[in-house]
Amino acid sequence: MTDTASLTLFNSLTRQIEPFQPVHPGEARVYTCGPTVYNYPHIGNMRAYVFADVLGRTLSHKGYALTHVINITDVGHLTDDADAGEDKMEKMARAQAQSIWDIAEHYTQAYWADIAALNIRPPAKWSIATHYVPQMIAFAEKIAPNHCYELESGLYFDVSTVSDYGRLARAVTEDGEGRIEAVEGKRNAADFAIWRKTPAGETRQMEWDSPWGRGAPGWHLECSVMSGDLLGFPFDIHTGGIDHREIHHPNEIAQNQAFCCTNGLDVPTNSGAKIWMHNNFLVERSGKMSKSSGEFLRLQLLIDKGYHPLSYRMMCLQAHYRSELEFSWENLSAALVRLKRMIMAADRLAEVAPGDARSPKLVPMLDAFDEAIGEDLNTAVALTALEDVLAAKKVDPAAKRAAAETMDAVLGLDLFGTNRANLRIRPKAAQVTEVEIEAVLARRKQARADKDFAASDALRDELSAQGVEVMDGDPLGWEWRLA
User: Fold this and answer.
1) Which residue, 308, 245, 213, 178, is CA-closest to 11?
2) The whole model's pTM is what?
3) Helix (H) or strand (E) holding 404
C-alpha cells in the first residue's frame, strides 16, 4: 500500500487540507449523497458523481479496500430542500399522472444510464431510501427523547441540543438559516423535521405508520440512517455538492451527534464522518442548469448535439473539484478535442500488451501523477502527466501502455476502451448520413488530387449546406464534423 501521507484531502468541516488516515486500517469507507429521482439529473448534478468517482478511484489507487455507498432518494425531499413545500416525488407523480413508484424507477434507471455513460464505477451499494424506513423510525425513536419535539405537522429536531450546530456551513445567524421557511411552533428557526405527518384529509402515495403518526421521513434523516447502517459511525468520508454544505449536511451531522454522542465538532469524527468533501458548482450563464427551465442541460442533450459523454468527464477533470467550472459549448468542444488526441495516442498502443510501467524515463511522470492526484485530487495536473506519458518518445511501448493504464484507472477516461469512431456522434438533428458524407468526401479528395479546386469547393459547399463542416488540414485526422 502507498504511504497514507501521500494522500491529502480538503475537509470542509475543518476548512483544512488533511492527510487521509482511515478509521479502519487498510480500508476506505465513503458515502455520497445521491439523487432525488423525481426528474433527470442535469450535468451540474453529475459533476458531483464524477468527483466522487475520482475520489474512489484514487483511494483504490492508493491501495485501500474501498466501500462506497451512494443513496437513491425516492421519498421525503421537499421542493425547497428545507421544511416547506411539497415532496418532490409526490409532486412529479401528480404532474405526470403516474405511480410514484414508476416515477422513481424511471428516473433511477435514467440516472444509472448517465453513470455508465460517464464511466463512473458503480458503488459497492446503492441504498434506496424506502428500503430503510423501519431503520429510520428506530433511529428517530432513539434520539427523540433528548433531541426532538412534536408539533402537529410532525417530529422536529431541536438544534440547540447539540454542540456546534452549523459549523460545516459557517452560516449560522441569530435569525437562523435563510433558506429555511418558518414553521409555526418551532423552537429555533433552524430546527428541522425528522418525520412529517400526513395532513388530515390527505393521502400520500408513500406513507408509513410511526409513533408520531402516519407520514414519511425527512430527507436529512435518510442519509444519517443509511450511512450509519452500511458504513458504521464514524466512517471515513462523506461527499456531496457544495449546495448540501449549507443545510442538508449540517442537519445530518446534528442527527449523527445525537445518535452517537452529544460532543462538539472539534473532534471531526463526532460528526459521523471523519472528512466532509464538497465539489463546487458547474456554472452555466444562460440559466439552463435549472430543471425548471424546460430543456435543461442533461447528459442526453449533449449527446444529441454530437458530444460524446466522456468529453464532459474530461471537462470536469480539467478543473479542480473545489473550483467553480463554467460550462459552454466552446469549453466542451475543446475538451472533446483533447480527449480525441489522447485516444489517438492510446490507439497506437492498442496491439501492445502492458509491461512494467516504471521505465526510467516514465518514473518522473508517474511520480508527478501520483503527487498531483494525492494533493487533494488535482486532476488538472494529473491529466498533463498522462499526456506526457502518451507523448513520450523512445520508450518501451509496453511500459508506456502500462503507465497510461495506471493513470487512466484513476481518471476514468477509458482511453483503451474507446476509439475514434466511438467518439464521433451524429447529432440528433442531422439529416445527412455518415455514408453520404464519406461518399462526398471521397469525391472531394479525388477532385483535390486532380487539382480541380472548383469541384472541390462545390462539394465542400454542398456539405456545408447540410450542416457538415469539413476540416482541411485537421491534425487529428477527423476530416469533418457535424456543425
Assistant:
1) 245
2) 0.90
3) helix 397-411
